[in-house]
Amino acid sequence: EEKASRNKGKAPHLRPPALVDIRLVSAKTGYGMEGLVSRLQRSWKCAGDVYLLGATNSGKSTLFNTLLRSDYCKSRAPDIIDRATVSPWPGTTLNLLKFPIINPTCDRIFRRQERLKEEAAKTEDQLSIEEKKYLNQLKKQGYLVGRVGRTFQQQKSSTEIDFDPDMLSYSMDEDPRDPPKKHEEREEFTHNEVKDARWCFDTPGIVKEDCVLNLLTEKEVKLVLPSHAIVPRTFILKPGMVLFLAALGRIDYLEGEKPAWFSVLASNLLPVHVTTLSNADTIYEKHTAQEFLKVPMGGEERMKEFPPLVPQDITLKGIGTTEAVADIKLSSAGWVAVTAHAEEELLLRAYTPKGTALVVREPPLLPYISTIRGARIPGTPAYRTKKPPSFVENLRTTGSR
């Protein structure tokens, strides 16, 4: 009663919806997708419609297209529904696309698990020529690769005879050698197929005001957004050195006692250049919008409308030579993981274009990223990076739990 009297007249406290699960997936290579479908079917319970929400260029349309071709969608729907238009330009999902979700009955769940067990038992040598070719193509695009299949296929009855009466008869004024063309109608769902259906919707991306992609042209966006798996690039910097990520980000190592490692995770099409603090401003003024720094591009005319880089000072304390202490996120251009000796204090100054976000992420997303570096490239601050072999997902681990 005392608590009720204190809260009288106040707005009710609204709790955020519970987070059900977090999944590591790649809609592009299929990794984790079968597990995601299984999790969605177990938690959804045919209770309502489903919406794919997120920022522009986060991969919603690619995810929508993959779910459309999976057991999450009614079996006949992929032949009827147009796939989403996937474009590198922010916010290009113009229409609210949707597909009907299949009802995960006990029988369908069982049949699906049986299929996943059979596919998990297959080795790569047992795959068809088409499957091997597609799998090799996916391996070139990512380290983590999975297979997305269909359990329920729409089967046409073999007893049906498909004919067009207009093709079997003609009137006196018609030439039988030039019969009228058959009127093609777009296939649609029947009323019974969708009367109680639940739908999965693809939505236009949420445009983030402080995103660097908003400043770029379509050609520049294609360079910034990774199209293949990112190969981390690690550099060792001493105090007084500067790292450029294209002309979209800059990190100055101002003060410290020992060298530190900076691992860049960004599109492999974006160049990384290391120079001295005394030369950094000259390099930026001379090479911005030129091939050397690549993005932005277009020369002096382009830079007249491009905002200048603005600084933010960052202080970090190292925790060891094998573990990064923090990520410096340069808006949507990528991020740099910083690794330093234990207890070593670093003073850094990071730059991003005015109006974009610069975030220090602690703890880092990939704390041991610097340990995958290879041998030092002689005469440079850069290390070689060995591309890890592709890992093909075992479907049984994601499908049968």
From TrEMBL:
Residues 50-100 form the G domain. Residues 177-189 have a biased composition (Basic and acidic residues). Residues 106-133 form a coiled coil. The keyword Nucleotide-binding does not apply. The keyword Metal-binding does not apply. Residues 262-362 form the NOA1/YqeH-like C-terminal domain. Residues 164-189 are annotated as: Disordered. It comes from the Eukaryota. InterPro entries: GTP-bd, Mito_transl_resp_regulator, NOA1/YqeH-like_C, P-loop_NTPase. Pfam families: MMR_HSR1 (PF01926), YqeH-like_C (PF21516). This is Nitric oxide-associated protein 1-like. The gene is LOC111928931.
